[in-house]
Every structure is written in structure tokens, then in C-alpha cells.
């Protein structure tokens, strides 16, 4: 979308009316406004479409509860990716970190008599240490975050295979632990409540605390953040450690809900998580945000579920196809948002400079 500027109107020109008057002289194109809510529109569209095609199954409360509860772990992994992304760091190890948390939960549950709550605490500490190691590679050795975390993810996968002996691990948890992941409160699955609580905490920190402002400042312009006195390196360490802990929490929640481990679980969650975060970044505030991410993820999840119900058995190809296409579209949307934001800021700076120059000239003029 091209943004055009026009010379400022004189004070004697006709008064502004309509949308321009309400917006202070500039109107937001309808396409931009719709783009900010495209995930909600897409979700509503899927609901209407598949509600017509498969009303008996897609609109049932069972389908909705299952889709929400099945998507919780992936949504948590998406939030793990979101936190460092706000600071300008890509953590591609979030899926592998989730898998590491899950394999540790299973190993301790099978081979020790430790309380599972203590094991969960150990998992969170270990996963935070994984984030710390990634930060060391990025900050100290100046390795790009994409490469560093991709390498870390492969190391983590090797560790998982070593611990599990490349076998499925099961039987580590009793029914009381599994009930935490499969129970409901007032018809709402427990795991959905865990996700909402986590989302609220991350949203509050990112949007309403100095910590969140520092993260976004470091992510939008690291050099300017340094000049402003922010320790960008420390922010990188902190964001990756928090990301690791959230990834570990995803593994803990998976152990509550499913209980078993296999090596394909963690890596398989990475691409849908990335699609949700990048799609969500084009929503609402037009930067990485919690509610945009969650709404984007579940909009896509219900799209996949609708296609599976419509085409019936043998539709194993739908999910990877849909997720791959969604990731490509989401990245394109996020890139467009970044470009629009940069152009808007440039225009604002130019307008401010022009106004300042005009003010200087008027102040310097003297009556004859």
C-alpha cells in the first residue's frame, strides 16, 4: 500500500468533516483496519463455512472443546516464541525445549520417586538454562539468533534421543497428575485455563510494565535502545530464559494431558507456533502481541479442524499443507506491517521536521 502525503492545509481552509475530522486530519484505509482484525474475520468465516458444510459435527460443543484443549500446548509454544521476538530475537528452539521438558518429566517420573511438582520445578530451571545457553551463543559469540537457536534445537533433540533411547516413554504419571490436564472447570478444560492465565501474565508484562517497554524498544531499534541506556544484551538473556521456561511449561502441560513422550512431539509444534505469532503480529497493535497470537492460532486450528471434518478420513496431508501456507502468508503479512510502520514513522519525522522548520522561519521573520 502506497502512503501519500499532501501539503498542510492553511488555517483558512474549510473545516475537516467526516472521518478525517474524527481522526485528526488523516483517515485509516479500510483495508488496513480490516487487516488488523483479519484473524477474527477468518475465524468467523471458518465457523460460518464449516457450520454450513458440517453443522452436526463442526458446531458441536465436543468439537470446540477438543480443538481448544488439543491446541493449548502449541499455543503455549507460540507464546514462548513471542517473548524473545518482542526483543528482536528469534528462538527456533522452542519446540525442542518443549520436548526436552517432556522427556525430563517422563524420565524422572519413571526412574525416581521425586514429587512431580518438584520435577516440574527442575524442568523449568533446566529449560531456563537452555535459554541462557542460547543467549551466550548469541551475545558472546555474535551468532545470529536464527542459526544459534536452530543449532541448539538439534542438540536438544540429540539429548532427548539419548535419554529416551529413541523410544516412546509412557507410564510415568498417575491418574491424579493426568487429571490436572484432562479435567474441566465449569465446562472449560483445565489446560485452557492454564493458557489463559499464562497469556494474561505475559500480556500484562509486555503491555503494561517497564520490562515490556524495554523489550519492544530493544526489538524495534537495538542501537537506539543502547543509546538510551538500555542493556540490550541483558534483555536478550532475560527474554531467552523466559522463553525457555515457557517452553518447559508447555512440556509440563503436555505431560498432564497426554503423558507419553516421543521425539516427534516438540519439533512438530514449531511451524504452527511460528505461523500464529507472525499472523498475530499483524493484528491489533501491529506488533508481536499475546491476544493476536492466540486468536490467530485458534483461527487456523479451527480451519484445519473444519477441513478434516469436511474431507473425512485420509486427510493427513491437510494439516501440514494448511500450516505451511499459513506460515508463508503470516510472514508476508508481518513483513508488510513492518514496512508500513517504517514508512509511517518516516513520514511523521518528515512532517515534524517540516513543521519545526516552518516555525523557525516564522519566529525569525520581523515586521518591516
Automatic annotation (TrEMBL):
<keyword id="KW-0813">Transport</keyword>
<dbReference type="GO" id="GO:0005886">
    <property type="term" value="C:plasma membrane"/>
</dbReference>
<keyword id="KW-1133">Transmembrane helix</keyword>
<feature type="transmembrane region" description="Helical">
    <location>
        <begin position="317"/>
        <end position="339"/>
    </location>
</feature>
<feature type="transmembrane region" description="Helical">
    <location>
        <begin position="291"/>
        <end position="311"/>
    </location>
</feature>
<feature type="region of interest" description="Disordered">
    <location>
        <begin position="1"/>
        <end position="26"/>
    </location>
</feature>
<feature type="transmembrane region" description="Helical">
    <location>
        <begin position="186"/>
        <end position="206"/>
    </location>
</feature>
<keyword id="KW-1003">Cell membrane</keyword>
<feature type="transmembrane region" description="Helical">
    <location>
        <begin position="34"/>
        <end position="53"/>
    </location>
</feature>
<feature type="transmembrane region" description="Helical">
    <location>
        <begin position="146"/>
        <end position="163"/>
    </location>
</feature>
<feature type="transmembrane region" description="Helical">
    <location>
        <begin position="114"/>
        <end position="139"/>
    </location>
</feature>
<keyword id="KW-0997">Cell inner membrane</keyword>
<dbReference type="Pfam" id="PF02653">
    <property type="entry name" value="BPD_transp_2"/>
</dbReference>
<protein>
    <recommendedName>
        <fullName>Autoinducer 2 import system permease protein LsrD</fullName>
    </recommendedName>
</protein>
<keyword id="KW-0472">Membrane</keyword>
<feature type="transmembrane region" description="Helical">
    <location>
        <begin position="260"/>
        <end position="279"/>
    </location>
</feature>
<dbReference type="InterPro" id="IPR001851">
    <property type="entry name" value="ABC_transp_permease"/>
</dbReference>
<keyword id="KW-0812">Transmembrane</keyword>
<dbReference type="GO" id="GO:0022857">
    <property type="term" value="F:transmembrane transporter activity"/>
</dbReference>
<feature type="transmembrane region" description="Helical">
    <location>
        <begin position="235"/>
        <end position="254"/>
    </location>
</feature>
<feature type="transmembrane region" description="Helical">
    <location>
        <begin position="73"/>
        <end position="94"/>
    </location>
</feature>
<feature type="compositionally biased region" description="Polar residues">
    <location>
        <begin position="1"/>
        <end position="14"/>
    </location>
</feature>
